[in-house]
Design brief:
Layout (H helix, E strand, L loop, with lengths): L3 E6 L4 E7 L1 E6 L2 E5 L6 E5 L2 E7 L2 E7 L2 E6 L2 E6 L2 E3 L5 H17 L3 H26 L11
Parallel strand pairs: 1-9
Antiparallel strand pairs: 1-2, 3-4, 3-6, 5-8, 6-7, 7-10, 8-9
Length: about 150
């Protein structure tokens, strides 16, 4: 299968730029699988995980949502936040998820409740991606420094 260009960026950095064979992203109405030469598309992404297949190997990126554009055999994701599986500290993500869940119980307004629920979706995606990395034998304590 011929590859397609895949770029995912946040306001702070370029998270990934590579040629891949498949991308599965959490669209607002369900998962979207993108293959090379896909029809042009612009859609909103919800918080979740992005699955990337390159040379038969899967990798995952946790995102808190954003936009995806598919055009001319290139997929660009503009994400609010995005972290590759090897960047996520599982313990910190689990703690943040617990705090977000506690925030729902004490939300004093609809705005606070909406923020807490959005945080829950974000941190659930991070925990899911980090746990998958652990099952595959990777580093789940975040990036290493040398």
């Amino acid at each position: 299968m011929s590859p397609m260009q895949f770029d995912i960026v946040t306001a702070e950095r370029l998270v990934s730029s590579e040629e891949v064979q498949v991308i599965v992203a959490p669209g607002i109405d369900g998962e979207l699988a993108i293959l090379p030469h896909h029809a042009p598309l612009l859609t909103v992404l919800k918080p979740g995980e992005i699955r990337v297949v390159k040379d038969g190997e899967e990798s995952f990126i946790a995102t808190s949502g954003g936009f995806m554009e598919v055009m001319a055999n290139k997929v660009t994701i503009l994400a609010d936040t995005a972290e590759r599986e090897d960047e996520i500290d599982l313990k910190r993500a689990e703690e943040a998820l617990q705090q977000a869940e506690e925030g729902v119980a004490v939300a004093a307004s609809n705005v606070e409740l909406a923020r807490a629920l959005e945080s829950i979706r974000r941190y659930r995606a991070m925990v899911k991606v980090a746990r998958r990395q652990r099952r595959r034998g990777g580093n789940v304590n975040g990036p290493t420094t040398n």
